[in-house]
Specification:
Layout: H1 9-60, E1 77-83, E2 96-104, E3 110-119, E4 122-126, E5 142-146, E6 152-157, E7 162-168, E8 172-178, E9 186-191, E10 197-200
Antiparallel strand pairs: 1-2, 1-5, 2-3, 4-8, 5-6, 6-7, 8-9, 9-10
């Protein structure tokens, strides 16, 4: 009858060393792959949301011509971007939230979320030469919508009480990057010509 011979301490040490090497290679690659997947997903969804925003505005002729003087029109549709600025009222956690909202300007104005994108691993930033996103000063969300000529309107605060209002007639770029480790990014390109066109680079 054969007796089973167990592993020696030296053999076990070699196996553990090989496993450690494999893990040292696999774990960083998995983390990098996960970050790339998250960035790609947010960039693709964000671009699709911008296209949907313009389609809704254009099909219903609900362009934004708001001015502080009487006669300006408030659109029904906006994209609202909270880039880790405003904590969740229940949990207190901060995350990236991008929402396609429908604004009701009736007696009690309210925002209804039609679609949203949430991420704790990805954030947005202005590309070089672009200023369409606001920074964290004041911890407020950025709103984006369109004018009749296809120009992009950006403001902060709320739909009715606007601050930092700017109109963009040229191409603007928003970078989608991981929260930690900026080795990988996608760029969402917002074009005012043709109106509402968006691409992901």
């Amino acid at each position: 009858m054969k007796r089973f011979k167990g592993f020696t301490l030296q053999e076990m040490a070699i196996v553990l060393a090989i496993l450690a090497i494999l893990l040292a290679i696999a774990v960083p690659n998995y983390i990098a792959m996960k970050k790339r997947a998250d960035v790609n997903s947010v960039a693709t969804q964000f671009a699709a949301m911008i296209r949907e925003l313009y389609e809704k505005i254009d099909s219903e002729m609900e362009y934004d011509t708001y001015t502080s003087a009487p006669g300006g029109h408030i659109s029904k549709y906006y994209i609202k971007i909270d880039n880790y600025y405003i904590p969740d009222p229940v949990t207190g956690e901060r995350s990236l939230k991008i929402q396609l909202i429908k604004f009701d300007a009736s007696f009690t104005p309210q925002e209804t979320v039609l679609k949203d994108i949430k991420s704790k691993t990805v954030k947005l930033q202005n590309a070089l030469g672009s200023s369409i996103l606001m920074d964290s000063a004041g911890a407020v969300a950025t709103y984006i919508t369109f004018k009749p000529n296809g120009e992009i309107v950006r403001f902060t605060g709320s739909v009715l009480a606007r601050g930092n209002v700017s109109t963009f007639s040229a191409q603007n770029k928003i970078e989608v990057i991981p929260v930690s480790g900026h080795g990988y990014k996608r760029v969402v390109v917002l074009n005012s010509v043709p109106p509402g066109s968006v691409e992901v680079q």
